[in-house]
Design a protein that fits this description.
This protein has 463 residues and is α+β, with helices and mostly antiparallel strands. It is built from 13 helices and 24 strands. The chain has helices spanning 36-44, 57-72, 90-94, 117-126, 129-138, 158-171, 223-230, 293-311, 329-337, 344-348, 354-364, 374-386, 441-457; strands at residues 2-5, 46-53, 79-82, 103-104, 112-114, 143-145, 150-153, 175-178, 182-188, 191-196, 199-208, 240-242, 246-247, 261-269, 275-285, 289-291, 318-322, 387-388, 393-394, 402-404, 412-413, 418-419, 425-427, 434-436. The structure holds flavin-adenine dinucleotide.
Length: 463
């Protein structure tokens, strides 16, 4: 087990130095004395001011800001961040293909789904993209904006981001302990008893930054959801993978186009055909189905809509793909009409890869050369602008970049990220019911909510 510690200073009277033996605290006035079993556990508990559960993006950020806030008041904080992962920050290291897409130059509530847009907006407004850029610059990480609007470190290395976060978190005196799983959190009159695989902690405040269920091998296996529920919180339903590739039936014709990447529009509609959500961008045809940004962005919408329709006993929702996203149905029809003589394949090949163009002609029963009769032309137009996708499912949390669903924001005070149900408990990051589209939005959520939770938890240093 590693313990990465920050520098040590003299402690103010109320705080316990991490290297000192931890003393059980007396019960608060008027509170019942703890039961004998609890007293035994408490006697061994290491006393800290703030315990942070999970040291991923949100946890490291919350740790850094809790420490900074305490230091800003001239105090040396006693803060411990506990993470169960063998490799700290694994998700940061793999993010953005190893380059870490830290944020996006423009972030709005419309880039997210989950709890209500006004609630998401309120949190995002407290720590903006400019704040993120300033934070990382001061931490030695210059960010650059790419044509897509995504911001990456100029080093093109996620390691730079992780190292800076660890430096910032420990530089203010916090300790990172890993690998150590948090197994239980109990709230009592004396604050929180946090049971970890490295021993118990007694904390005045807890920040739960345990992530969701995506990429479980990175340590985010959903155990934070159980911890939140044990402290009185609910979870939204359903909880499904987000930013996840979708599967098609084995042998589906699209799987035979494996390796093909092209711009598309994916459209989700109700059983009656009412369009509800769309996403545009690149789609990758694979041996199992579909991937690429447009598919990843719409995946959580499809999964949630499918589950909700099923549980309401409604007919299944529909997902379709427009292979010519810039072109509406009438224009596609005109394009084929004007192709007289050249044949549809020659026309389609100007816009689509040959393999796809041939397959669509075949499926529409359209000749590849010569005249195109009205009926096959209509079928071809329908397929080009809205091929129905018989999606069978998704590739699971193992291959998902985020989690849709979690602790609802309605159970959290948005100015402090403190629980409305369990005073002293704060939340940050993906454990909450917020997920963003591809582009650095999920990290921006982790930074904004981590900042709020960390600074607010450190308010205990005011007393
Ligand atoms: C492959 C991949 C690429 C991505 N790329 C990007 C990108 O480029 N840009 C972007 O914005 N987003 C990206 N994301 C999403 C982003 O990484 C997450 O949204 C973000 O990391 C969430 O931060 P978090 O701190 O809330 O949770 P996590 O990063 O999941 O961290 C949670 C931490 O809590 C720990 N933990 C959980 N339970 C316990 C427990 N019981 N005890 C102790 N520790 C526990 C885990 O070990 C983990 O370290 C990517 C995700 C993946 C999987």
């Amino acid at each position: 087990m590693h313990a990465v510690s920050g520098s040590r200073h003299m402690l103010p009277s109320r705080m316990t130095h991490e290297n000192q033996p931890l003393q059980p605290s007396p019960p608060l006035d008027g509170e019942p004395a703890p039961a004998p079993a609890a007293r035994t556990r408490d006697a061994a508990a290491r006393r800290v001011d703030i315990a942070i559960v999970g040291a991923g993006a949100a946890g490291l950020f919350a740790t850094a800001w809790a420490g900074r806030t305490a230091r800003g008041r001239g105090l040396t904080p006693s803060i411990v961040a506990v993470d169960g992962a063998r490799k700290l920050g694994a998700k940061i290291l793999v993010a953005g293909g190893g380059r870490c897409n830290v944020t996006h130059w423009q972030v709005a509530d419309t880039d997210f789904v989950g709890s209500t847009p006004p609630a998401i907006r309120k949190v995002l407004a407290r720590f903006t993209v400019d704040d993120t850029v300033t934070f990382f610059k001061a931490a030695g990480v210059e960010l650059k904006r790419e044509d897509t609007g995504k911001l990456f470190p100029v080093t093109d290395s996620a390691r730079t981001v992780l190292d800076a976060l660890v430096r910032e978190a420990t530089g203010c005196g916090a300790t990172l302990v890993h690998p150590a799983r948090v197994e239980a959190i109990v709230r009592d009159a004396d604050g929180f008893l946090v049971t970890t695989s490295a021993g118990p902690l007694r904390a005045a405040r807890v920040i739960l930054c345990s992530g969701g269920k995506s990429l479980p091998k990175s340590g985010s296996d959903g155990s934070g959801h159980a911890l939140a529920m044990s402290l009185g919180h609910s979870l939204t339903s359903p909880i499904v993978p987000a930013l996840v590739p979708l599967t098609l039936p084995a042998g589906h014709w699209i799987t035979e186009l494996s390796g093909l990447t092209l711009p598309t529009e994916l459209v989700l509609s109700t059983a009656s055909g009412k369009r509800t959500t769309a996403s545009t961008g690149s789609t990758l045809c694979t041996h199992f189905g579909l991937s690429g940004p447009a598919v990843l962005d719409i995946s959580r919408h499809w999964l949630v809509a499918r589950d909700r329709a099923a549980s309401a006993g409604q007919p299944p929702v529909k997902l379709s793909i427009n292979w010519l996203p810039e072109t509406h149905t009438g224009a596609v029809d005109d394009m084929l009409l004007e192709s007289r003589g050249r044949g549809p394949l020659a026309v389609l090949r100007e816009h689509l890869p040959d393999r796809l163009a041939r397959r669509l002609c075949e499926l529409a029963g359209a000749p590849t050369t010569g005249d195109l009769p009205r009926e096959p032309r209509k079928r071809l137009v329908t397929l080009l602008t809205g091929t129905p996708l018989e999606v069978t499912g998704d590739r699971g949390f193992t291959l998902a970049e985020a989690t849709a669903g979690g602790v609802p924001l309605s159970e959290v005070r948005l100015d402090t990220m403190e629980s409305r149900l369990c005073p002293g408990l704060h939340f940050a990051g993906e454990v909450l019911d917020v997920d963003g589209r591809i582009g650095g939005f999920n990290f921006q959520w982790a930074w904004a909510s981590g900042f709020l939770a960390g600074t607010a938890a450190a308010a205990l240093y005011e007393s």
